[in-house]
Predict the structure.
Amino acid sequence: MRPGITSRARRTLGEDVGIRRAGARDAKRLTRLVRTSRAYEGPYAPMVAGYRVGHDYVETHRVFVAVGETSARLLGFYSLILDPPELDLMFVADDVQGAGIGRLLMGHLSNEAHEAGLTEVRVVSHPPAEGFYLSVGARRTGTVRAAPPAVMWDRPELVLPVV
């Protein structure tokens, strides 16, 4: 098995999973992944209803995608901002959550942050995702208050140490 591929993901998905830098051609698929996420149903739906991951965003930020190496299927992605250091976006396709894709992406993020000389990365979490970030080593530092009309709820603020 290649380095960086989690055995859990391979076992669950039946194929290797790779991570690569996103390109402008990925923008529509990234937007679809955000807008269709079950994590943003119900009261959270307005947050992503008109959200767009544009070509310009992908070209100017450190956006990385997890893809099935045989199927080329987009399984998840994240975006790392370096200054100030923050995880801007992270989504995993609904049907592969629990397969290790999120952990694979977070491991990659940690490596990218380390190579960029960062010691920690801020994470403002979607409330239901807080447990995931805590499970990968982040620690809670506070709460980011709601900012209507864009965000109608308070969100956990965490810091992920870069090792």
